[in-house]
Amino acid sequence: MSKLINFNYIGKIKLDNIKNIVNKLSNKEWKSFDFRQKTFEVHRHTETIPIIYNEDFRETDLHYWPCYKKFKSFFKKIENDLSKYFSKGYIVRAILVKLKARSKIDPHIDSGPSLEKCKRIHIPIVTNSDTFFTVGEEVKNLKEGEMWQINNSGKTHSVENNDNKDRVHLIVDWNND
User: Fold this and answer.
1) Quick one: residue 55, left, alpha or beta (phi over 0 = left, psi -120 to 50 = alpha)?
2) Half-sphere exposure of 169 (CA within 13 A, CB side)
């Protein structure tokens, strides 16, 4: 495991059917959960599908949303890969986040005990070469199927999608206490 600065490459994961499942999600499914967009102004250009998510960010008594069933086999792969990489742990949060075409997530700082404690993993499911993730002074274009640990807790970060197509990331918070 390399030293974590802001972006730590974990490896590739086969997207298999996950991309097809994501591409078949309806507008109704994407728009049915708006907690993040209403709670955090910087996420106003995003849409979120919660998979494993509690609005209070707790790490026990996890809420598995109905769509978890669609992604269950993919999560087994993620858990296996992350267990090998970090040696132990479990997923405490998982959300699909769509950043709309030609939009951005403004620079902001995430905080809170859970975010400081967990390892945040981004897995691009649908992306393009004109989308850029910035943490501090580092800028990366993350490719589909790559797994990245992003160290953005307490640091200014942002995302720009300069393409005409939406970008979708699976964001997983991993607790290995």
Assistant:
1) alpha
2) 24
Domain boundaries, given as residue ranges, for the chain: 12-175
d(CA 9, CA 18) in angstroms, rounded, equals 20
pTM as predicted: 0.94
d(CA 117, CA 110): 12
- Say how far apart CA 11 and CA 145 lie, in whole Å: 8
CA distances from 156 to 27, 37, 112, 137 (A): 30, 19, 14, 9
Q: Note the pLDDT tens digit of each residue in 85-120.
A: 998 899 999 999 999 999 999 999 987 777 788 999
Which residues make Cβ contacts (< 8 Å) with residue 84, sequence separation at least 6? none
Domain 12-175 top-level CATH class: mainly beta
pLDDT for the residue numbered 4: 54
Q: Label the pairing between strands 167-175 and 90-99.
A: antiparallel
Are 51 and 65 contacting, i.e. CB atoms less than 8 angstroms apart? yes
